[in-house]
Amino acid sequence: MPAKNDGPGEGAAPSKSEQTRALILQTAMRLFQERGYDRTTMRAIAKEAGVSVGNAYYYFDGKEHLIQGFYDRIAAEHQVAVREVLDRETDLEARLAGVLKAWLDIATPYHEFAVQFFKNAADPDSPLSPFSPESEHARAEAISVHRSVLAGAKTKVPEELRDILPELMWLSQMGLCLYWIFDRTEGRERSYRLAERGARLTARGVALARFRVLRPLVRDVYELFTEFLPGMTKALPDPAKRKAPADDGRPAGVG
């Protein structure tokens, strides 16, 4: 069950319910940073937030759903933060670099927390994984940002690639995120440089995609990720999870 969202409409004052939800989420983030994800319990979060344990569970079904709330909040903040650069820039490289650097700006306060819980998020079976079904809403929001990056750019994107490029661009953002987690330079300076270099390379690749001969290469890259990357696999079922056929007592091959 996803985290319950009683959020107000855009421009409306937050309700008492929404304030309580935000308080629980904010308290959880602080305790995760101070104590670590594994050592923080829902009971401790409720106590620090000044609410009952039952109330904490009303808004979030568990610690994993608190992380989903965190993902959703980061995604919503990113949507707002990129508006200025997307309204101002039409150059694809500038648009993408601005979007990636805006994400780094928003993520900055959570760097140590991200380092702590990465071992859980890296598990492909964990709901904390950015590729998990539980993370679908935040993932879709992030991909929609990259769709906007392409839609407003002066660079022409071939119609047959418009649906797959935003997802590939989001996957490159996940690569940037992984690098950022391990980045120990002051102010994560190398991560910002990587964002700029990555945006330049992506813009050149999209520009080259106008040549029809190169489009199959883009599709091959996309299919490689969706077939083999944990959490992205769409074409092939997991053999370990296949159900054995029922034994009805008839020899194999007999209809």
UniProtKB/TrEMBL annotation:
InterPro entries: DNA-bd_HTH_TetR-type_CS, Homeodomain-like_sf, HTH-type_TetR-like_transc_reg, HTH_TetR, Tet_transcr_reg_TetR-rel_C_sf, TetR_C_23. PROSITE patterns: HTH_TETR_1 (PS01081), HTH_TETR_2 (PS50977). Transmembrane segments: none annotated. Residues 18-78 form the HTH tetR-type domain. Residues 239-255 have a biased composition (Basic and acidic residues). GO terms for molecular function: DNA-binding transcription factor activity; transcription cis-regulatory region binding. It comes from the Bacteria. Residues 236-255 are annotated as: Disordered. Keywords: DNA-binding. The keyword DNA-binding applies. Residues 41-60 bind DNA. This is AcrR family transcriptional regulator. It comes from Streptomyces calvus.
